[in-house]
Specification:
By secondary structure, this protein is of the alpha+beta class. It has helices at about 1-35, 40-55, 60, 90-95, 165-170, and strands at about 65-75, 85, 105-110, 115, 120-130, 135-145, 150-160. It has 5 helices and 7 strands.
Length: about 170
C-alpha cells in the first residue's frame, strides 16, 4: 500500500513538472512570436543605427542603410527660414568613422511612431541630442524604410534640429 501512495505522489509531481514545462514553452513561443513582428524588426533597425552612431561604428551603421539612401537635415537654428542640407551615405559614414573617440554622442529617442504597409515603413522619433553629456539640441527624425527579400533598410532619413521648445531646456530651468 505504501508503494502505491509513493507511486501516485511521484506521478503527481511528474504531472506538475510537465504542466510547468508546457506553460513555460507556450510563453516563450508567444514572446518570440512578438519579437519577430514587423514593428519590432523595423524598431531594431533604428536602434542598430543609433547604436552605431553612439559607438562611432560606421560598419554597424552602414548595415542599416540602403545603398541609395537619401539623407537630409533641416534646422531652425540658422534663422526663421531654416535650412535644408542634403548629405550622402559616404559623407555620413565617413564622419562616423572619423569621430573623435573622446567625443560622446547621445541621441536620446523620446518615442517611436511606426507605420508599416507591406514592404515600406515610416518611423518618427522625437529626440534630444547630447554632446559630451551636455544638451545640444532637440528635434525629430523621420525614417523611411524598405524591406527587400531579407531585411529592412533605411532608404530616407531627414532630421529636424532646434534649440527652442525642447523639454530638456525646460527641465534645466
Amino acid at each position: 500500500m505504501l508503494f502505491l501512495v509513493r507511486f501516485r505522489h511521484y506521478k503527481f509531481i511528474d504531472m506538475q513538472k510537465s504542466i510547468v514545462f508546457i506553460i513555460v514553452l507556450v510563453c516563450s513561443l508567444s514572446f518570440n512570436a512578438q519579437d519577430n513582428s514587423p514593428e519590432n524588426e523595423v524598431k531594431q533597425v533604428i536602434e542598430t543605427f543609433f547604436e552605431g552612431l553612439h559607438k562611432g561604428d560606421s560598419t554597424l551603421m552602414a548595415s542599416t542603410l540602403h545603398k541609395d539612401i537619401k539623407i537630409q537635415t533641416t534646422s531652425s537654428m540658422s534663422g526663421p527660414n531654416g535650412l535644408l542640407q542634403t548629405d550622402s551615405r559616404v559623407k555620413l559614414l565617413t564622419a562616423i568613422a572619423n569621430k573623435n573617440p573622446e567625443h560622446v554622442y547621445l541621441e536620446k529617442l523620446l518615442s517611436y511612431t511606426i507605420k508599416i504597409d507591406g514592404n515600406i515603413a515610416s518611423v518618427w522619433t522625437p529626440y534630444e541630442f547630447y554632446f559630451n553629456n551636455n544638451f545640444s539640441h532637440c528635434g525629430a527624425n523621420s525614417f523611411q524604410l524598405f524591406k527587400d527579400q531579407t531585411s529592412w533598410k533605411i532608404i530616407y532619413l531627414v532630421d529636424m534640429r532646434r534649440r527652442n521648445q525642447c523639454q530638456a531646456l525646460k527641465e534645466k530651468k
